[in-house]
UniProtKB/TrEMBL annotation:
Gene3D superfamilies: 3.30.70.930. This is Uncharacterized protein YqgV (UPF0045/DUF77 family). Residues 3-97 form the Thiamine-binding protein domain. It comes from the Bacteria.
């Protein structure tokens, strides 16, 4: 499965001066990267690929990390659950790029 998620703390006691959440998001991304699962981060979401239990465990740890010191945490999550398929984090994009090149 592939999960795309975005996590954002709110009500942090010592938030960034500009109201940003990049430090908290960096803690979450670090958890994902240290998981060893295939992943990628963009400006809006982090994607991670693996089996249900391992992916969801990483998402939980990432939410916990982002929420350190925050009164609450928002989580947006989208999942592509396709049993029997792996390597889709890149393969899905490659299929789209193939069609774009064919035009």
């Amino acid at each position: 499965m592939i999960v795309a998620f975005s996590v954002s703390p709110a009500g942090a006691a010592d938030g960034e001066a500009d109201g940003g959440v990049s430090e908290a998001v960096a803690r979450a991304v670090r958890v994902v990267r240290e998981s060893g699962l295939p992943n990628r981060t963009s400006s809006m979401f982090t994607e991670i690929e693996g089996e249900w239990d391992e992916v969801m465990a990483v998402v939980k740890r990432a939410v916990d990390a982002a929420g350190e010191g925050a009164a609450r945490v928002g989580l947006v999550l989208k999942a592509d659950i396709r049993p029997g398929y792996t390597g889709q984090l890149d393969a899905k994009v490659e299929r789209v790029e193939h069609h774009l090149r064919a035009e």
